Amino acid sequence: MKPITQKDIALELNISVTTVSKALKGMKDVSSSTKESVLKLAEKMNYVPNSVAVNLRTRQTKTIGVIIPTIVHQFFSKVIDGIIEEAEKHGYLVITLQSNENYEFEKKQLQLLIQKRVDGILISLSNQTQYCEHLTEISNKNVPIVVFDKINKLLNCSKVFIDDQKAAYEAVTFLINKGYHRIAHFRGSLMPQNSIDRFLGYKKALNDHGIPFDDSLVYLCDNNNDFEDGYNNAQKLLEENKNVDAIFAITDLIAVGILKCFNDNGVKIPKDIAVFGFSDWFMSTVVTPSLSSVIQPGFEMGRKATEILIDEITNLNANKPYSYQNIVLPTSLVIRNST
User: Fold this and answer.
1) Any idea of the CA torsion for 264, 224, 186, 155, to the nearest 10 degrees?
2) From 259's CA, which of 108, 120, 166, 307 has a CA 20 to 30 Å away?
3) Does domain 6-49 sit in CATH 1.10.260.40?
4) Smallest Cα–Cα separation from 250: which of 178, 165, 322, 146?
5) What is the pLDDT averaged over residues 101-123?
6) Tens of pLDDT along 176-219?
7) Contact criterion met (CB below 8 Å) for 67 and 109
8) Is the per-residue pLDDT at 78 higher than 90?
């Protein structure tokens, strides 16, 4: 069935299309009786405004693009919840894509969003993203970009993230204060900033408490930081028999893999070895034993990043200046049975 247009309403009421348009917008130079007639007929005929035409006039699509590294992480699902809630408050549609932790695919996804003429972009960088010329090029074309969670500190745009080094430091310090001193770190890929910072926080906590750093206790989890990484590296740790009494893992998913491996091998947690995760996923509360973790505010990160992006879009369209923001959200520890 052909969509009802303003022209159809105008013909039915024997008035001009311009009058119909003004009546629908509630403009003062149209009489109250005409407005009422137009609105009643529009409702009766199931008239829906042509958003494409509106967007052409305003030079906005009222759409923002989001690129996340992966969908499986509960953390990113919370971020998306925050993004959508804030976007809906301002009448924005959200297009969500994933990079699969791949730099080249991330670039392709960005170009796809530009082709869709999004008003702005939210992105958490892939593990492979070291250089950000592709983002700078888009920003230079007056498309606002806000980076969240996995950031590049040299990128000239607004950012919303946590202090990963501080959060890791606090987690490892907790373990040390509990009496654990042979602490391994299951770290993420070498490139992402949050992986680097969590490693530095781990290392600094050891140093500040007089515990020598042992690089043989650092296990690389670079298969997208997943369950198998945790399981396989925990198995390797047991085979190497390094007398480790605690592990600080870069993500809860890796930590759950560690727990599974230890349970399969009869290792008692935390009696034989303690495990500390990062992000506080729902699974942390239901695994056995329940997992201590760093609470990472995913929902608030998504909400705040969207708020900043929409503010930049609004200022850009109004030819008003704006300054880039670096928002560091607070974290905290939640202590459960694994420690």
Assistant:
1) -160
2) 166
3) yes
4) 165
5) 94
6) 999 999 999 999 988 889 999 999 999 999 999 999 999 999 99
7) yes
8) yes
Distance CA 176, CA 329 (A): 25
Q: Is 230 left (phi over 0), alpha (psi -120 to 50) or beta?
A: alpha
Nearest one of 328, 302, 335 to 81, comparing CA atoms: 302
Measured CA to CA, the distance from residue 227 to residue 230 in angstroms comes to 5
CB 80 within 8 A of CB 88: no
The structure tokens listed for 203 are: 């290392």
Q: Is the peptide bond before 49 cis (omega within 30 degrees of 0)?
A: no
Calculate mean pLDDT across residues 162-176: 98
> Number of helices and strands (H, E) in the chain?
13, 12
Is residue 218 within 8 A of residue 250, CB to CB? The reply is no
- The answer to whether residue 55 scores a pLDDT higher than 80 is no
- One fold for both 6-49 and 59-161+298-331? no
pLDDT in tens, 2-37: 778 888 888 888 898 888 888 888 888 888 888 888
The tokens describing 98, both together, are 């994933």
The DSSP secondary-structure symbol of 274 reads E
Kindly state the helix (H) or strand (E) to which residue 218 belongs, with its residue range: strand 218-220
- Please report the pLDDT score of residue 79 as a whole number: 96
Q: Three-class SS of residue 337?
A: coil
The pLDDT score that the predictor gives to residue 149 is 96
Q: Where are the domains of the chain?
A: 6-49, 59-161+298-331, 164-295
**Token pair belonging to 276:** 């500390």
C-alpha 158/C-alpha 85 separation (Å) is 20
Superfamily of domain 59-161+298-331: Response regulator (3.40.50.2300)
Helix (H, G, I), strand (E, B) or coil at 223: coil
Q: Write out pLDDT tens, residues 319-328.
A: 999 999 999 9
Q: How far apart are CA 221 and CA 223, in angstroms?
A: 6
Assess whether pLDDT exceeds 80 at residue 270.
yes
- Of the candidates 296, 298, 308, 279, which has an alpha carbon nearest to the alpha carbon of residue 86? 308
In the beta sheet, which residues pair with residue 94?
Answer: 64
